[in-house]
Structures are given as C-alpha cells and as structure tokens.
Amino acid sequence: VFFGSWGSANVPIPWKEVETKLFALNVVSEVVLQEGQAFDFSVIMQLVAVLSASRSEELKGFMHIVYRSLADVIGSYSKWISAFQTNARPLLLFLAAGISEAVSSNACASALRKICEDASALIDEPSNLEILMWIGEALEKRHLPLEDEEEVVGAISLILGSVSNKELKNNLLARLLSSSYEAIGKLIDGDNNHSLIHNPATYTQILSSATRGLYRMGTVFSHLPVPLPTNPAGDDPIFALLRVFWPMLEKLFRSEHMENGNLSTAACRALSLAIQSSGQHFVTLLPQVLDCLSTNFVSFQNHECYIRTASVVIEEFGHKDEYGPLFVTTFERFSQAASVRALNSSYICDQEPDLVEAYTNFASTFVRTSRKEVLAASGALLEVSFQKAAICCTAMHRGAALAAMSYLSCFLEECLASLLGYTTSIPEGSFNAMAIQVISHSGEGLVSNVVYALLGVSAMSRVNTSFNLKYAIFFYKKYKY
Questions:
Q1: Domain span holding position 351
Q2: Per residue in 407-425, pLDDT tens?
Q3: Given 164, 192, 212, which residue is the final one in a domain?
Q4: Distance of alpha carbon 410 from the chain centroid
C-alpha cells in the first residue's frame, strides 16, 4: 500500500497521499482480516514514531486527520499490530496523545480499547500500566465525550482486571477512580452545600464532574471479572471498591442533589453495573439500596431511572425468599406514586412513555423472578399493575405499548403454566387463587383494550397483540364466574 522514498529523512512525507492510503487500508480491513494474509506493518509503526515525535504545533489542521486515520488503522488491525511486544509502548503513547485532541479522540479511544482487548498479556507490564494510569488520571481535565471516555476507562479497566497481583490491582483501581471519588466528595460535603447554592457556575461544574465520575465508576465495575461465589470477599477487588463506593453513593442518594436528572441517571447506572458485577457482595445492602431507590423516585418522579435500577435488583436477587417482603414493599411504593397512579389513559401513557416502560418492565421482572408465595401475597399490587398495563398497551408510543404488552404476556404465561399444572382444588391464598381473582376482575377491560390495540390506530405488534388476546379471552371465559 505504501511506497516511494518518503521513508528517507531527507524526503518530506506527502501527508495527503499517506492519509489517502491509510483511509483505503482501513476501508478494506474486513476483507484483509478475513483472508488472513498478514503483511508487514513496520511502515505503520514508522508513522506512529514520526507523529509521536512531532511537536504539538506541527500537529495542526490536516495533520489531525492523518492522526485520526492512523488511529483507525491501528484499531482495525489491532490484533496483528499488537502481536509484537515492542509495539505495545509506542502504540500506547501514540494513542494517549491523540485522545486529548478533539479530531482524533474517538478514533484513538476506540483503538486503545481494541489494543487492550487483543494484547492484554503484552500490556500487563509496569511501564505500560503506568502509561494507562497516566491516561486515566488525566481524564478529569480532558472533558472527552462520554462515549470516548467510556472506551478509555473500559480499556484500562480490562487491563487492570487481568493484573495478577491483588494488592497492585487494588492500588491501581483506587488511583484510576481517585478523581471520581474526589468529584463526588465535593458534592456531598456538607460544609460546601451552602456556598454551592450561592455559586451556580461552580455548582454546575461540580455536578458535571460528579456525573462523569459516576459514569467512570460504572464503567470500571462493568469491565471487572464477576467474582466467583466461592472466593473470599477480602480477595476480591470489587469488594474493595464497594467499601468506598456504596457509602459515598448512599450519601449522594439521600441528598437534594439527586433532583438533577443527569446526576440521577449516572448514579443509577453506576449502581446497576455495580450490582451486576459484584454478585453476592451486594446482598446485605439490599434494604438500603431499595429504600434509596423507592424514596428518590417518590421525591423525583420524573426520574424513572430509579425504577429501572430496582428492576436490576429484582433480576439479580428476586429468587431470595428472605427479601420477598422487601421487594413487595418496593413495588407498592412505586405503584402508589402519583405519576404511576396517573397512568389511567392512553393519552397520559403517550406523555410518559419512559415511565410506562420502566414500570411495566419492573412488574414483568417481579413476576418472572419472584417466588410464587411472594406473588400470591401481592395480589392487590399485581391487579393494579395489570390494569395499568392493559390501558398502556393502547398507547400510540410503540415502546410503551410493547412494554405493557410484554408484561401482560409475562403475567398470563405464568398464570397459565401454574393453572394447567394444578389438578386439585385451588386453596385460598395461593398463587392460582390470586391469578384467578386478578383475571376475573380485570378480564373484561383487558379484552377490550387488547382488541383496541389490535384493531385501533396504535402501533402495536399484531402478533403479540393477537397472542395476548387469545390468552385474555381464554382466562376471562374460564374464570369470570
């Protein structure tokens, strides 16, 4: 692809020609990789060396585009280029410099992730780890787009997760997140609250830093290996992070700052990823976690992220009998919130599609994962949520309608499976008795709403709607008396 005598120190490099060929090399990367015929990438590393050695004032204008194109090629051919130990350090330094430039940041962040995925064993060296830490510790000042920052933090976390020395791993993770801890600490520091209120510019900046810090923390959790249940908690780096993470997050959840939508979303995302990554380490914190989530939703009902995060909790721990009453209480608090109670027409459902999706998905998760005894004790809640879903399935908003219909399907499938497997009389207070009561009370409204969703102007899937209509008619005819 590259030819000519520009490799000589006495011949100026035709950068426009080089950029064109880099672009072409990137375009055909998929075909080249499929054919599996590796070629000499020394010229790529030569370009890396040239651009890395250039002064900042030389890398302006068109040179930023060359930098980006070279980063794209490195990302596309990362498995081949990073196969040699000697390439790791110059590649990391090249990408680290490019991340700080707006034109090349996305390409360099993506290439860094691919290099770390394909060459984790080669990068796991003290000098390379220091380069990664230098990149990570500088993120607070660089203000990258969130998607680029997530790529960078994910790449670094992937490498840190593979470090065999537990003490070193914990120290590096603490260094990576130190700026995040500091940003959140400034927000929840009680001594600063009064001054922040009277300084909107500073408060906005601190809010932004804390939000980014929470995104970084969530990304770190999502890229660390899930601990085995048999591993001692003290040996797990996730447990070490949780000891700092949860007390700080709980204090943040109980502050008035959570009125900010971006901060709430970032905090809920970080918590969801921490729960999914930490396994059983989080189980003892469930009462505090669900109390924070339900309380904050009641206080800030336009932030449906709290319901979505509670769904993650139920998904992970809904099978645990001892926490059944806690899950029921959480469901009840969500259902009694004014915004949820107001979902009594398709028009309102169309005005609040995110809330409809969050609430009905939570209800689906609750029904799917909870024990039958817990569901039997939740008859009143399930009846209310079932009736809400029957109304919401007529909404024009496709996402809201499909989420509502999915919950109806989930509930009816659970009922059908249980009732068909029961040949004796149905005892009072059982799941089957509750199911019959809910369907007999809600069947007529369900049938009419599902028929409307099938034949009306809403954007519902005909297959799902027809499926639920058959269920609804079957149950209503069988149990209406």
A1: 319-480
A2: 988 888 888 888 776 666 6
A3: 164
A4: 24
